[in-house]
Amino acid sequence: MSENRGHWYLLTGLLIGLVLGIAYAWAIAPLEYVDTTPESLRADFKDEYRFLIAFSHRAHGNLERTRARLSLLGDADPVAALGEQAQRLLAGNADMSRVRILADLAEALQNPSAQGAVPAPVTVAALETGALPASTVESGPTATIPPTDATSPFEPILEPTETPTFQPSPSPSPSPNPRTRTATPTRTPLRTATPIATATARPSLTPTATPGQPFQLADQSTFCDAQRPGLLQVYLQNSAGSPAAGIEITITWLGGQEEFFTGLKPELGHGYADFLMSPGVEYALSLSSGATRITGLQVETCSGDYPGGIRLEFRQP
Amino acid sequence: MSPQRWALFAFSILVGISLGLLYGWVISPVEYVDTSPDSLRADYRADYVLMTAEIFAIEQDAGLAARRLALLGSALPPHEVAAESLQFAQTNQYPPQDVTLLQNLTIALQLHDSGGSLP
Fold it and tell me: Does residue A247 contact residue A261 with C-beta atoms inside 8 Å?
């Protein structure tokens, strides 16, 4: 090689090094993510994680804990995410009890004041047979396992370099970013440990009564929309005037019945639900475990010779 | 090529490697967006197990609990996964009621894994 060829060899060396470096960094020793967060989970694992959060909420009934857990999934709107997942399950003909679990949590998040009405995770039979510890039975009429304190269970987790510092903090609020959490292990126990393992209760998937008064029909109207022929639209508002999500609606007709929930189409409102009616069939709709019942719902033919829709608005007194 | 040029050539390779590593590890690292639960950090894994324990408390079905824990993808049997989380909870001072739930799940899974009798 002639000494007069200039400094191109430096560029050659740089490029060789660059290629080797990138190959090492991407292929031989790429960054390994061993300590990931639930937010980075694949969509199907996220769904399973979200379902577990909803199901465990039935057990502990602690909305703050549930909110903290849901925040880990990084959903922009956790209620909408629950609704969308329930909708996917419905579309896939999944077990209705799974749909109901998600819908119940969506409703609890929408209407926190109704927390006392979290579906009872133990059956009445378990209470009657004394299968539960006395302390559990005494805890409330729904016999749920008493909620733990409001702190997320992963609140006290420390980074490897952190040193635990005990700070009296009666009601610390969970931070959305677990990595930035500080250790606040001091808690105010709100329940005594009960020998839960002795309980042989099974979860009750019996539809629970809507918290508060039964819904009342506020408005009923028909509409003609060729884009939505034969659609029964139901809008629910709770006593606070907010859309009521996760409310079970039962539609019956001669020879059939179907259950669906409000809030499964969050893009149309958390208190919205719809059902596609067939012409010539008379339907009855019931809400609040049958306390509210509307009968004689039938499709009317519109001027364009297509089936019209019905819009029902319910409000809770 | 003179020894000085060889030295400069080697140095330029090293600079290139450094730049490559900087690009590959810092500027544009491999991104993992669709991770599986087995890569979760220890505290999230423990919370996952705790949720399973909370559900187990009302279901009392060790088989279902074991299936839920299988999602964590651990090579360990379910009762050891639960035991790990129990240890983690105790070390990190989880509330006693949560520790109790994890204990109950661990015991139930031990029974389940051993076919009904404790080892």
Answer: yes
